[in-house]
Structure formats: structure tokens, C-alpha cells
Amino acid sequence: MKKIIVLSLFFVFATISFGQIGLGIKAGVNMNSLSTDLSDYEKAAKTGFQAGAFLRIGDKWHLQPEAYFTAKTGEFSYDFDAGSTTLTNVNQEITLNSIDVPVLIGYKLIDPPTLNVRLQAGPVASIVTSKKFDIMVDKQTVDTPDDYPDNFKDLNWGLQVGAGVDFLMLTVDVRYEIGLSNIYEKPEGATDSDLGSLKNNVFFVSLGWKIL
User: What is the number of other CB atoms lying within 10 angstroms of the CB of residue 201?
Assistant: First the structure.
């Protein structure tokens, strides 16, 4: 991951001297799903949103760092069996609000004067700003343990891939974000049947306006 960031920074310095620089704002919706190592679970994609800004450096080949606030909510259900403790129909809804900072390298496939089509990919860092949990057991709401939020990391990594279209001052992006890091840290003393890994996978569509 560090090598990718170093290469991206090198790309900035290599392009900023001769490339064009653009600035814009963007907003969009996302569909977030959680993947886990639990052997028997059901997941459900949930809708969230995002809003922020982007900087584009370069022309045909370009670098696009972004920063935006995003709300990602995922839901999954499973049965928990730890020998002396058995819980059936456990449902968790997890919302992580974060500041996302992707650094994307892009290439314009089509580049006429008023419209272009581009491909982009790159790493994204998610800095968690708040956490919300809704837990139900057998359709009954239960209190979230006080230390439960501490098991979710405050910094997570992902990889974004996607395509975009620019028309005059408008820009549309469609991307998929693959969760690379485990957002959940298994507490000490947890059993093997407890949740071991959890990753965010996000599909999103955004609409932007190029200011420069």
C-alpha cells in the first residue's frame, strides 16, 4: 500500500509541471455490503451517501485525489454458537461514517472537446469519524456493549476501480470499492465462532460539477 502511495505522489510531481489542473465538487449514493469469514450468514446491501470535492491533475493520463464525507451502512445475519452460549437469528446493522481519501490514476479513452470517457483506479483511505450499531437477537433489540465500538478500526483501506464520463462541466462516476483491510479487530478472549473478519465493499454513483 505504501508503494502505491509513493508512486501516486511521484505521478503528481511528474504531471503537475505540464498537465492541466481541475477542481470540482461531487455527491452521490452508495450501496454497501459487508463480507465476513462467518461460514453461515446472510448479508444485505444498504444505501448510503457521500459528498465532497476532487482535484484532477493532468490530461489524458491524470491523477485524481479526492476527499469526501461518506456514510456506509451494512447489514448481516447469522447464528452464534459458542458452546455454553447460543444465539439465534442475530442481525447487525453497522454504520461507519468516514472521511474517504482516494488517490486515483486515470486514463481518458475518448477525449473530444466537450466529452470524454475515462477509466480510473487507485487506493482509498477511510478515516472513521463516527460509528453506529443496531443489534437484534431473535427480532428483539439488544443494547450494544460499551466496548463494542472499540473493536472497529478507525482507519481502513480499500481499492477503487471504475469509469467516468465528463460532459462540459458535469462529471459522472461509477465505481466499485473493494475492502482490503479488516474493519473489525477480534477482541481478546473471543471464541472461534465469533466474528473474525469484516470488510466493506461499496458500489457507488456520483455526480460532480467542475469548478475549474
Answer: 18
